[in-house]
Amino acid sequence: MTTATAPRALRVVASAPSRRLASPARGVAPRFTRARPPRRPSFPPEIEIARGSVVVAALPSLVPENADDALGRFRKVMCGLYLAGGALHFPDLFGSGPISAACGTSSFSDLSVVLQAVTLGWSVLGPVAAFGLGAGAWWGEAILVFVASAEIVLGVDFADAMAPAAIPPPVVAAQVACLFSNVAIRGWKTTEGANASGGGEE
After folding, report:
1. By residue range, what is the domain housing residue 159?
2. Is residue 149 part of a domain?
3. Does an H or E element contain 7, and which?
4. pTM of the model
């Protein structure tokens, strides 16, 4: 009988210390640990660089890369402006536009010959030039040069003939800047072409 019960006693005694160790000691307050917030996942350097490059790539550069880039930007801006100019003057064909309001008339036939020419020119050539500029056609730029030159001459030399709807000085200045930009970009494009052909011959 003694030999049969000895192993059970040993097992009980062996398991007793583990229970004491698992429970806190008497008279000692249990220690609580503060829960740590979840750590933010860290990305490898190459991924961080890639994420940053996506943001930078989404922002267009203010400086054109070359003459073709500058010409494309110029055409896009002037396309919107000439389309807006045509839409602005089109109501004058029916006596309800800005020129008609400045002259105090509600009929296209009551406008002077010069003002009628300006109204027709913008109403027709404005949208046509915008279409050509948007399509990247050379004739779109040709119409732009013609309209800009005509407005500069009319605004400077025919202000009295266009009164009271003379072309404002800021509009004349804007047309001068338009012509200057077109000539400068075309000169840049010509120079790039000459350098490229010269480099190929070497």
Report:
1. 67-191
2. yes
3. helix 2-22
4. 0.66
